[in-house]
Input
Amino acid sequence: MYQALYRKWRPRTFDDVVGQAHITDTLKRQVASGRLSHAYLFTGTRGTGKTTCAKILSRAVNCEHPVDGNPCNSCPSCLGIENGSILDVLELDAASNNGVDQVRALRDEAVYTPAAVKKRVYIVDEVHMLSTAAFNALLKILEEPPAHLMFILATTELHKVPATIKSRCQQFSFKRILPGEIAARLSYVAEREGLGLTGEGAALLARLADGGMRDALSLLDQCAGPGGEIGEQQVLDALGLAGNLETARLMEQVGGGDTAAALATLARLYSAGKDVGSLLGELSALARDLLVRKTAPQGGAGLLTGGYDENTMRRLSNAFSTQRLVQMLGRLQATAVDLARSTNRRTDAELCLIRLCDERLDESAAGLSARVAKLESLLAGGIPTVCAVPPSPAPKPAAAVPQGGNPVSRPPASDSPPWEERPPLPEEPGGPVVCDAPAAPKAAAVPASAPAPAADLWPGLIAGLKGRVPMGEYTFLNNAAMVQGRLEDGVLTLWVESDFVKNMVGKRSVLEVVEREASALTGSAVRCVVTVGKAPAFAVPAAAPDSHDHLDDLLAFGQQFDNIIIKE
Output
């Protein structure tokens, strides 16, 4: 009958235990010198050797011929304990024996001297599962135990063990095993079993085990086939980690700012049955790995969760800055928390992806830091000496109407564009070369009571909507790349870039607020419709208002920098 590798290769002596020398050396010295405690408490994560060391210790204290603190595993006591024929060494599962009655029965039985060995040993696994009454029943015998009695308690959740129990035990903390030590043990086992495990495959299995030797041996058992080598690709295929390629592809789309492709990938995975919470969790784990790799490129390899090949990690790491990864992790973690109480998980996941693809939509401090880092990286490529903007048609001359009502003639408009190439300014000592920027054109004056022209309606309308519509919908309305408003004959058309944006801003509750605000600005009733497509260009108005909000000019002025051509 086949036996699992983690059972077949369970260590039988302290010297065989991997990665816990700080514990095994102490236990060996205690056994060799006879300075044994009546109670031990082993703590640590799963698969790190707690139960294994407890079994070795139970044999070592009863061994007839111990070798430097290790059991000989050949005397009648060792063999009887190992095959379970000696009932004086008993292993209990506290998860299924957690009642006070079971502990009282154990306490009543423990007072009797052992029949076949020197010490009666009780190994209580997952001791934190005991009830409060059971802990109280165990406390008395731990406080005043007979000389022939020894307790070995094991737990993965030390914080659930009462302090009165911990103070009566010698506590040993088992640490996670290093990936290098796990890989070496896997190679040793694979060689003895005749498995063609490569170094890359062993390293990947060691990372996936997350510090647990039992998990690593179980994964190796799962990857073992009838023949052939077990490399990195074979491990990914056998463990079903090929889906990580989809996660990596989605991360590439986020890094490239391809919102449409990211939403399409999410829709395809959702249709295939993928849970959006699991998908965001995988993205979060990948972002965490990229952040660790970027901040600790030398010693961070052992901190990675694994599952991605080196080429993928290198390519993705070069696509993101540290600030960008921090912003993405914060957004993913916040969305994962909100999904538990969300009424529409898919919509929340889509909003999260949209904000990840365009960090300008993230109004948090992390989003601002990511945008600043992006600007710094662009400027680090070289100091700009000449600023040029593609020429745009000059505004037509218009007659302004002052307060008195008489038109004022304006000089003819120049044929040159408002911005033109200028020679570089001399560089100041200790500072970069700075480009001249043209002053914003002054607006012509009209009476303050006049309604806003169609061309100037949308910026002022957006400013008035802040705080009146939900922040999620306002984020789309305030993004000129996604939504543009055009007013014509009493109909305000919202031109949006996609059906998704249409569904977000086309809600009746949102449109009613937009219509009320637009009607207040124009002085007449305005009806609002939403259309998918590109907004037509505005005709230049004949006049501009007198009491003009210069903040709108400043915002429009800043948006032109998206098309600035930097020449070095």
Residues 276-295 form the longest helix (20 residues). The chain is about 45% helix and 10% strand. The chain has a mean pLDDT of 78. The radius of gyration is 36 Å.
